[in-house]
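Project outcomes to date are best conveyed with an example. Our students and postdoctoral researchers have been running inverse folding experiments weekly, and each run begins with a structure described purely in tokens. The record below, which covers 329 residues, was selected by the lab manager from last quarter's runs and is presented without edits.
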């Protein structure tokens, strides 16, 4: 049986990709894997469905990131690797092109159920704090020293998915890894400045306008904010990360679940959920074809905003009632 290590060692040319609108974990893991595979003597291309965001452009000082436009030919590759996702449908139209290529698809991911996605071979651990942490493990298992560029990618993955070590998934492995990465030359303050201290002048107004739209439901246990197309257009122009609204709402006393609903231009609604207590939001979004983690998950809901808001409120209410019942039992 082919192991994941064998899969990496027996291919010559790789195409690395990830989900639409790639975030810090996705991009950081790609950078770390790019340098791992290069160290093994392979040719590697990173081709994402969307361009790299301005906040992450510091990675391009050492790692080339490309994105796929319909009119562009893909570089030649022997195998594709999906990072931070497991389904080709999450890669947009690029996913269809990869499927038609007939080339094997590998998955490196830490989301629940990723071993049941579109990968012909998988390197998956839902207990890992970030996809980048898995790429760090691959370096160790394959005996490849961690370069400074790869270390910076892993560090970005960790801080992106642990909220700069504030979330409950910041376990002993994460802190040990962070110490190792800093010792390898990673400058955490420089990365923080790149991510959070270069915001567009309209970003403060966007955050204020987004927070002003929040409402408390279910006796204050659910905080919900909805962003219509007009606000999403403003956010796109300012390269504003709309998820910035999640933590302020999660900090409100009594709130157990935060829901951010974003109206997409195709008429669907992108839902992001965060939990503060013992509510499993991954189970909630699974009802709508989504996925993620117990305390952070999302889905694309194929319905309008009004219907999506009602559906999320109903699903959260059921989860709250079930959790209350379990505590009483």
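After processing, the design step wrote out the following sequence:
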């Amino acid at each position: 049986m082919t192991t994941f290590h064998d899969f990496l060692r027996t291919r010559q040319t790789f195409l690395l990709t990830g989900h639409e609108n790639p975030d810090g974990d996705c991009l950081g893991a790609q950078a770390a894997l790019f340098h791992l595979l290069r160290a093994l003597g392979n040719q590697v291309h990173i081709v994402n469905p969307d361009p790299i965001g301005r906040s992450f452009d510091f990675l391009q000082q050492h790692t080339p990131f490309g994105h796929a436009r319909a009119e562009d030919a893909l570089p030649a590759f022997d195998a594709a690797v999906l990072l931070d996702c497991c389904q080709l449908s999450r890669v947009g139209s690029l996913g269809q092109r990869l499927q038609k290529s007939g080339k094997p698809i590998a998955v490196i991911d830490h989301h629940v159920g990723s071993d049941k996605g579109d990968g012909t071979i998988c390197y998956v651990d839902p207990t890992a704090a970030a996809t980048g942490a898995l790429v760090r493990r691959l370096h160790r298992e394959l005996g490849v020293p961690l370069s400074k560029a790869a270390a910076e990618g892993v560090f970005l993955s960790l801080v992106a998915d642990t909220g700069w070590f504030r979330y409950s998934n910041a376990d002993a492995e994460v802190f040990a890894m962070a110490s190792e990465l800093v010792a390898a030359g990673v400058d955490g303050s420089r990365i923080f400045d790149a991510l959070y201290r270069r915001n567009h002048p309209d970003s403060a107004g966007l955050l204020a306008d987004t927070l002003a739209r929040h409402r408390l439901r279910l006796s204050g246990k659910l905080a919900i904010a909805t962003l219509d197309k007009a606000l999403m257009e403003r956010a796109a122009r300012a390269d504003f990360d709309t998820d910035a609204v999640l933590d302020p709402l999660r900090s409100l006393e009594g709130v157990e679940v935060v829901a951010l609903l974003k109206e997409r231009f195709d008429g669907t609604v992108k839902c992001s959920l965060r939990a503060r207590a013992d509510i499993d939001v991954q189970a909630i979004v699974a009802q709508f074809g989504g996925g993620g983690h117990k305390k952070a998950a999302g889905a694309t809901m194929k319905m309008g905003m009004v219907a999506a808001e009602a559906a999320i409120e109903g699903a959260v209410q059921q989860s709250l009632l079930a959790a209350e019942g379990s505590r009483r039992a």
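Residues 305-328 form the longest helix (24 residues). The radius of gyration is 20 Å. The training component of this project remains on track.
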